[in-house]
């Protein structure tokens, strides 16, 4: 894996978590996680308590996917949402979107690789 990819995504994290390299098991779960993350990034902020909950869930998902930098941004966003800090939430949501743009291609490429192996 190229060094620039490794800074965004740990390709082995998900299979390590599930203790399996079986692509037929990993692919559907990985794709579902990627879809959830994509929807979250594209949705506007409507409700801060819901944002806090969704961010917490996706933070866990990103940790499972090995997207460490995105985990850090989501952690800060979760705290800002808990404090109803609208300005900070907006800024952090933009930062999360930017970070996701860096990670998205790598994650989609990995999902496609798993799909082909399944």
Summarize the structure.
This protein has 118 residues and is an all-alpha fold.
Question: What are the main properties of this structure?
Answer:
118 residues; 6 helices; Four Helix Bundle (Hemerythrin (Met), subunit A); mainly alpha
Describe the structure.
There is one protein chain. The protein has 118 residues and is mainly alpha-helical. It has one domain: Up-down Bundle (Four Helix Bundle (Hemerythrin (Met), subunit A)), CATH 1.20.120.160. The chain has six helices and no strands. α3 (23-42) packs antiparallel against α4 and α4 (48-65) runs antiparallel to α5 (68-82). It starts with a helix and ends with a helix. The mean pLDDT is 89.
Rg, Cα atoms, Å: 14 Å
Indicate the CATH architecture. Answer: Up-down Bundle
Model regions low in confidence, pLDDT < 50 over at least 5 residues: none
Number of strand segments: 0
Helical/strand content category: mainly alpha
Protein topology:
Elements: H1 3-6, H2 13-18, H3 23-42, H4 48-65, H5 68-82, H6 86-117
């Amino acid at each position: 894996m190229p060094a620039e990819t490794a800074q965004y995504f740990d390709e082995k994290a998900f299979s390590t978590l599930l203790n399996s390299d079986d692509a037929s098991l990993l692919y559907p779960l990985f794709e579902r996680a990627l879809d959830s993350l994509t929807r979250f990034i594209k949705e506007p902020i409507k409700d801060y308590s819901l944002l806090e909950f969704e961010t917490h869930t996706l933070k866990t998902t990103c940790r499972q996917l090995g997207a460490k930098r995105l985990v850090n941004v989501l952690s800060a966003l979760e705290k800002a949402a808990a404090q109803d800090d609208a300005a900070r939430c907006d800024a952090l949501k933009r930062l999360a979107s930017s970070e996701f743009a860096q990670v998205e291609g790598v994650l989609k490429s990995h999902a496609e690789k798993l799909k082909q192996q399944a």
